Each structure stands twice: as structure tokens, then as C-alpha cells.
Amino acid sequence: MNKKDIEVVAEIKKTTDYEKFQPEPLYMNSTRINYLLSRVYKDHKSLPLIEVKKVGDKLEVINDQDSFYAAQHAKLPIYYYETFRKGEVKPLGKKHLFPTDEEIDNVITLAQGDN
User: Fold this and answer.
1) Which of 58, 62, 103 lies closest to 83 in space, CA to CA?
2) How far apart (Å, rounded) are the C-alpha atoms in residues 87 and 101?
3) Is 9 helix (H, G, I), strand (E, B) or coil?
4) Residue 64: left (phi > 0), alpha (psi -120 to 50), or beta?
5) Which of 3, 21, 57, 67 is 20 to 30 A from 104 via CA?
6) So what's the pLDDT on residue 27?
7) What is the mean pLDDT of residues 28-43?
């Protein structure tokens, strides 16, 4: 691979300044937050990266709100990157531990194929 073929699209940053972030509480999933915390404490795993978008002097959390809340609860550093997606970027919504009914229906439909 040629170095000319590589383009940096984001940098991973680390901070414990939780006040600089603007999470969306509507998308918080307490079950997933507890799951992430158990992975940190029990399995010594890292929390997922958080995707943010700069809005004024704040960083709006647009992906993985639960990782933000877990880090804040455990007083761990937040690892984040500013989004490289173009256009209007909104929070991606609540993350689930298990597939939703709609996701299961989609998989069943896909598995059945054209009948």
C-alpha cells in the first residue's frame, strides 16, 4: 500500500472533561450502560469510542451515548473523535443489547428470500 493511498479522516482524542460533551439523555439505555460497566470492571475491556460533532463550544454526542455515560459513571477517560460524515449529522439513537422486533422481522424476511 502506498502512503498516498492513506488519508486521515479522524483523530482519536481522550479527556476526562465531561462538561465539554452534550449527550442526548433520550437515547440513554441503562441496561447497556450497566453491560459496558461490567465489561470494564469484570473483563477489563475498553469502552467504545464516541463519535461527536462540534456545536458551538460543546461536543454533541452523536454515536454511543451509553459509552459516554459509562465513562462518566466510572470516572474513566472518554475516547472520542469528531465525525467525518458530511452534511447534517444527528444522534444515531438508542443502542440495544438485543435485536429489536423490527430487526428480527427483517432478518426473517431476508432469510425467507423471494417466495
Assistant:
1) 62
2) 30
3) coil
4) left
5) 67
6) 83
7) 89
Residue 46 has pLDDT above 80, yes or no: yes
Neighbours of 32 (CB within 10 A): 19
Query: What kind and span of H or E run contains 28?
Result: none
Alpha-carbon gap, residue 53 to 22, rounded angstroms = 10
Task: Please say whether the beta carbons of 69 and 33 come within 8 A.
Answer: yes
Q: Report d(CA 7, CA 113) in Å as an integer.
A: 39
Residue 81, SS3? strand
Crossing angle between the packed helical segments 65-74 and 30-41, to the nearest 10 degrees: 50
pLDDT in tens, 58-107: 999 988 899 999 999 999 999 999 987 776 666 555 555 555 666 566 66
Compute CA 58 distance to the chain's CA centroid, rounded to the nearest angstrom: 17
Q: What is the amino acid identity at position 94?
A: K
| pTM: predicted TM-score of the whole model, two decimal places | 0.71
